[in-house]
Amino acid sequence: MSAVWLKYTVQLDASLEEAFGAALESAPYDLGWMEPGIEVIQTNNGYDYRESADLPLTAYLFEPLADGKEAQTERLIRFLQRWEKKAVLAAVEVVREDDESWREAYQPVQVGSWLIAPSWMKEDGDLPSARVLWIDPGAAFGTGYHGTTQDILRLLQEMPLAGKRVLDIGAGSGILSIFCARNGAAWPVWAVDVNPSTRFQVAHNSILNGLPETAIETVIGDPLHPAVMKNLPHQADMILINIGAEEDVAMLPVVRRLLAKQGTVILSGIVEWNRQMVEQAYREAGFQLVAERVSGEWVTLVTRLCDNEKNG
Fold first, then answer.
1. Same domain for 33 and 160?
2. Is 90 within the bounds of a domain?
3. How far is CA 88 from CA 10, 13, 61, 219, in A?
4. Which of 183, 214, 251, 274 is the most buried (most CB within 10 A)?
5. What is the pLDDT of residues 238-263, one digit of tens each?
């Protein structure tokens, strides 16, 4: 007979994410996953969405049903009161341990010669131990199901990574950083993101993939900010930017400062209608387009610095 759990849905102010996670370590609740607040925006090309730090996170907590739904719910409400109205219980649901319907959205996906799979599938024993990237869903973007992430992974499989110094901007869950670290890139691979959730997600997924703490260095913040820039590596042979077209162009000062001679930049998060804008900006900055991948409306560009003025 399967165990019965209470599943709590908590709306959480984004600023409390780290404090909330730390408090759970000594609480009787298991954190399933977090989802960022999503804002629908209107663009010149229709509607899109983006993560918003002004919207609450949604955290899903689990607790074995033992003392009764009402009593345990009241106990959780008291636990949340320390954050006053910044952490609110939105829903309570009774679920069975064998009810894993939420996991159906996270099935293994083949990307080139590698599989991307969530960690709970390790228990199945049906997946090979090698060439699997174990990535769990979380509040940081990048579980490997998006076309841009997959196209970068395909491109990376075609490139020599041994000894390369890699900077991953917009690292999210760390999937690209982890792939590079597992495939010979110099340690540490640098993973940068503005989302504080990235620090936990990268650490968690690194452990799943058998990587030590020294394999990936996570930096939280905007690389364009001087305080963040000083925490980045002196040089990189390869820079990955998977954010958006405008952000790809905005990162040019960082790229020009940190990229080594004849270094490679992979740019993604680009859609067909702003591809030309990105390519032109990088071409005018001294880069040559050397490869391209397209998945639906999404475009990924591989560029290489080709001028002779760059100090290596």
1. no
2. yes
3. 6, 9, 12, 30
4. 251
5. 999 998 889 999 999 999 999 999 89
Asked, for residue 310, whether it belongs to a domain, the answer is no
Rounded distance, CA 32 to CA 305, Å?
A: 43
Domain boundary, last residue among 62, 77, 99: 99
Residue 112 belongs to what domain range? 105-305
Determine the residue type at 261: K
Q: Are residues 258 and 123 in the same domain?
A: yes
Cβ neighbours for 169, distance < 8 A, ≥ 6 positions apart? 192, 193, 223, 239, 240, 241, 242, 243, 251, 254
Domain shared by 160 and 299, yes or no? yes
Q: What secondary structure letter does DSSP report for 196? A: T
Phi and psi based region of residue 26 (left: phi greater than 0; alpha: psi -120 to 50; beta: remaining): alpha
- CA separation for the pair 198, 195 (Å, rounded): 6
Structural contact between residues 92 and 69, judged by C-beta atoms closer than 8 angstroms: yes
| Residues written for the chain | 312
Peptide bond preceding 188 in cis form (omega within 30 of 0): yes
Same domain, 134 and 44: no
Q: What is the pTM of this model?
A: 0.69
Would residue 75 count as lying in a domain? yes
What is the rounded distance in angstroms from the CA atom of residue 74 to the CA atom of residue 176? Answer: 42
pLDDT tens digits, one per residue of 258-302? 999 989 999 998 988 899 999 999 999 999 999 999 988 889 999
Number of domains in the chain: 2
**CATH of residue 21:** 3.30.70
Tell me, yes or no, whether 184 and 38 share the same domain.
no
